[in-house]
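USER: Write out one fold?

ASSISTANT:
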Amino acid sequence: MGLPVLSCVIGMIPEKLIERLKRIGLDETIYDSRTKKCVLSREHVDLEKVPWYEHAYFLEENNDGNTKGVSKGSFIFDPVSIVPCLALAPKKEDRILDMCAAPGTKTFILSFLTNNEAKIVANDISRQRVKRLRFNVEKFHLSVDVWNKSGRKIYEKFDRILLDAPCSGEGMVNKSEKLFKHWSEKRVKDLAKKQKRLVKHAYSILNPGGTLVYSTCTFEREENEKVIEFLLEKTDAKLDDINVKINHIPGITDSTKQCMRIYPEHNQTGGFFVAKIMKF
């Protein structure tokens, strides 16, 4: 058993989490350092480019968003968040659903990728989180409809759906104190049940020929590969390759090799899981 990571607020990393990390070749040291942040810009910025998207730029350490051509009030986020949006490959003529959208990071990216011209619906079940989502939509003048309902109560059809599912958040290394406080094996299992219901419903409202991207910021097999295996077993869904050039490993079960597992050590980002699903 490795040494626990101490937290000034809530003590130490749960032992069960350490055990689970070790099963997939990780350990508690992933929570020792903070990850890079980025901004999007179609104009050149005098900063290092994010390798997997030409219009994204890494912020330098301790950058406050107001130096080297980055204006104050810019939308700053973990560059790994771009990956599921690129996997979705949105087009301006698409009707797009960001099913669990708050606080709006991926809504912002999807809008950027489509030059703010696509018909995007950004939804979230939480009234409180929708306030933050709506704030960001208005602040950045996004042409987006904001909904506040359960993802499973949406019945309209969409060409592309992003389901960035509620998860245990193990890959959010910058927010480890919050993670450790709320993490439990029971919560992982409860979230996995919710994720299966959400992904199955998302697939049911996807138009034929459409694309569904499922993503999480956790490492748990129950919340990642097992959710995708459930969808493949219960529907006619098919996985597709993800053409994003980012360091990663494939899904860790035989039927999910086309999925991406992105660990903090791969790109100095948070951890992520991404699956691209097609409906024929």
